[in-house]
Amino acid sequence: MFAIALDGPAGAGKSTIAKMAATRLGMHYVDTGAMYRTLAYDMLRHHVDIHQENAVACALEQIQMKIIYDENVQRMFLGEEEVTDQIRTPEVGEATSTIAVYRAVRDKLLTVQRDLAQKYEVIMDGRDIGTTILPDAPLKVFLTADAAERGKRRFLELEEKEPGMHTLEETIRAIKERDERDMNREIAPLRQAADAVVLDTTYMTAQQAADALVQMAQEARSR
Ligand code: DC
Which CA distances in Å does 188 have to 128, 173, 184? Predict the structure, then answer.
């Protein structure tokens, strides 16, 4: 099955660009970060000590995560409750990066993600898709941008949701910290696959980056 593995650091524009490209290519957009976020959100709500691997592994057994694709929008549920929007806060992002280092967490989501790629043609966005989840994907793209630019984009998003609650400096610092943690964990770290194409979006609009991705996908499909 044709698949695109799209990896890269926080704020590189993966989800915006993948959504635009998926619609044009008639593919399924899969946001793996949202799955990690949903697990972390549930643990925060249940006051699980996320710094204890055992506590996290235990909590995982209880979580009823569900994913629904609705007109190519990925909606996340815990039991019957939709949490698609609630998982988007900086606090949940931080906790997510903490629990994403644990083996039990990664193993649980590896199965979910590979199953989706067997069922549908996917553009799957994450950190380890090209290296670990779909190592045979016919197209792998590593999407990146300068940390300052990524911080600025995140900051503008946050300003829209919660005006005056964050500073640009704090947002850039948090993004650099998250990069560090995602790149330096032992299991499935954020890393460019050897056969991935790098797309640096620092000086690109989302539209330009989506155009580039669509073109690469069309070429890869016809190979
Ligand atoms: O892409 P995002 O900001 O929603 O990701 C949130 C966190 O989840 C990020 O800090 C790293 C982790 N993550 C991961 O470890 N592996 C993935 N495939 C996707 C996300």
Answer: 6, 23, 9
Can you list the alpha helix ranges (DSSP code H) found in 46-146?
53-62, 90-99, 103-119
**pLDDT-derived band at 156, boundaries 50, 70, 90:** very high
d(CA 166, CA 120): 38
CATH assignment of the domain containing 106: 3.40.50.300
Q: What is the pLDDT of residues 23-68, one digit of tens each?
A: 999 999 999 999 999 999 999 999 999 999 999 999 999 999 999 9
Residue 210 has pLDDT above 90, yes or no: yes
The pLDDT assigned to 112 comes to: 97
CA-CA distance, 140 to 131, in Å (whole number)?
Answer: 9
Domain count of the fold of the chain: 1
C-beta of 113 in contact with ligand 1 (< 6 A): no
The residue-averaged pLDDT of 193-214 equals 96
- Rounded distance between C-alpha atoms, residue 130 and residue 191, angstroms: 9
Full domain range(s) for residue 203:
3-221
Which of 56, 96, 108, 175 for a ligand 1 pocket mutation test, highest count of atoms within 8 Å of Cβ? 96
- Which residues, 6 or more positions from 62, have their beta carbon under 8 angstroms from its beta carbon? none
Nearest CA to ligand 1 atom 15: 100
